[in-house]
Amino acid sequence: MYQEDTIAAIATPPGEGGLAVVRISGPDAEKIARQIFLRPNGRDNQLRSHTLYHGRICDPKNLQSIDEVLLTMMRKPRSYTGEDVVEVHCHGGNFLVRQILTVILTQGARQAEAGEFTKRAFLNGRIDLAQAEAVLDLIRAQTAKGAQLALSQASGELSKYVGELREELLDILVQVEAAIDFPEEEIELLQRHHLAQKITALADKINLIAASYDWGRLFREGAKVCICGRPNVGKSSLLNALLGTHRVIVTPVPGTTRDVIEETLTLDGLPVVIWDTAGIRDTDDQVEKLGVELSRQHLEKADALIVVLDGSVKLTADDRALLHSAGAKKLVMAINKSDLPLVIDPGLFETGEHRRVVRTSALSGTGINELKKTLRELIVGCPIEPPVTVTNLRHRSELVRSADGLQRAVDTLDRGLPPELAAIDLSDAREALEEIIGMVSNDDILERIFSSFCIGK
Ligand SMILES: Nc1nc2c(ncn2[C@@H]2O[C@H](COP(=O)(O)OP(=O)(O)OP(=O)(O)O)[C@@H](O)[C@H]2O)c(=O)[nH]1
Ligand SMILES: [Mg+2]
């Protein structure tokens, strides 16, 4: 699987730029560098490790200069891949960079495949699998929080925690295996109970970080919030109030908003995509009908809803129908127009973990901060902050698999079945944890992970 050859690739994106980087990794990296790199005044080409040199890249065939560059050589094992690595920092011209790569390839390097540098870093033990995957997340991060989570994972925080969970699991396995090895000392009831308790506690910890996946996704990708309600209740006015600008047209005419308006805002670090939609009601107007259909589609897609109700009038059948169609979705009911006398009866509303009520006035701004706070709590809704956050679906599936294995072991012990059976479940739970950090891995998994990287990383 791991070829000991020398690979090279352009590490920066295509297109014109101030600078570009070409990377070489493998046993011939230094040899190739010395063949194509000339220092000023023909100074000798011995390269010290981790030092930046100024010079020119030349085609060794005709000694023609290609570009003026900075070059650095990182001798193994103190490099990204754990092999000898050379980086050429050249000018960022499309043609120029490809010419430099071509010269490197004609000196015997092979074009690197997607993610091959990082794959080598993993295979050489520089980083584990979870860290390698975090490198990709870091490159793709869209928000400050997403980048921060990826960086902590790339520096090994998740791996460390999973390693600790694995140690705990190994301790438990030792106790169960002792019971298998010494069957005459059949595990007593008390011991069984004690073991089952320990396993449950471990499963709780694993479940908590598995649940952090949804939490991490929200911070990485942003939460989707849909403002909905019947016409004229003040949806667009509320969006304006939340944004603090006059973004959307507001009129006393019901049916003003026809299309979905998308905006973004940040709720105490949580990125939110927010949609203002057409008022939902039965209508014969063709254009409005289309708008209502769009509103329903966005309502479905949202992570949470702001259902706007007009507090200055009685609850209508349209309001009830909308609240009913929201089903189990997380929602905040904004009882709007609180500057007018309260007519609606808030006592009628069913509240709960997923349903909150806030009184607002889009006109005066009263309750808008409360609405933001409630919305954030509702979306993030994580009572105990997890010690680490899982951002990768593969990691979450393995954690769930591990917790399931632990639960099966608890059942086995509780039912007084042979400890051998519990040991099988515990081993499966252990393997799942090991697959996260790549202590056990197979070619398929590696192929899937690294092929989604870009070339040159
Ligand atoms: N008194 C008062 N009037 C408000 C408030 N919010 C909105 N309005 C008024 O209610 C009317 C409708 O407001 P919009 O924001 O256009 O309502 P909407 O829900 O977006 O309406 P459609 O787009 O037609 O569905 C406007 O005349 C607003 O000025 C409020 O908090 N208090
Ligand atoms: Mg509107």
Radius of gyration, whole Å: 30 Å
Q: How many independent structural domains?
A: 3
Strand order of the largest sheet: 3-4-5-6-2-1-7
The largest sheet is: 7 strands, mixed
CATH architecture heading of the largest domain: 3-Layer(aba) Sandwich
Which ions, cofactors or small ligands are bound in this entry? guanosine-5'-triphosphate, magnesium ion
For the record, what is the CATH homologous superfamily label of the largest domain?
A: P-loop containing nucleotide triphosphate hydrolases
Summing up helix and strand content along with how strands pair, one would put the structural category as: alpha/beta
Overall mean pLDDT stands at 90
Order of helices and strands: EEHEEEEHEHHHHHEHEEHEHEEHHHH
Number of helices: 14
Query: How many β strands by DSSP?
Result: 13
Principal-axis shape: flat
Detail the poorly predicted runs: none
Kindly report the CATH topology of the largest domain. Rossmann fold
Distance from first to last alpha carbon: 18 Å
- Approximately how much beta-strand content do the residues carry? 15-25%
Indicate the CATH class of the largest domain.
Answer: Alpha Beta
Helix fraction by DSSP (H/I, runs of at least 4):
40-55%
Task: Describe the fold and architecture.
Helices cover 45% and strands 18% of the residues. The chain is of the alpha/beta class. It has three domains: 7-127, Gyrase A, domain 2; 135-218 and 392-438, tRNA modification GTPase MnmE domain 2 (Four Helix Bundle (Hemerythrin (Met), subunit A)), CATH 1.20.120; 222-380, 3-Layer(aba) Sandwich (Rossmann fold), CATH 3.40.50.300. The strands form two sheets. It has a seven-stranded mixed β-sheet with strand order 3-4-5-6-2-1-7. Strands 9-10-8-11-12-13 form a six-stranded mixed β-sheet, sandwiched between helices. It is flat. Bound molecules: guanosine-5'-triphosphate (GTP) and magnesium ion. Residues 229, 231-237, 250-252, 254-257, 278-279, 336-337, 339-340, 361-363 line the site of guanosine-5'-triphosphate (GTP). Guanosine-5'-triphosphate (GTP) binds next to α8.
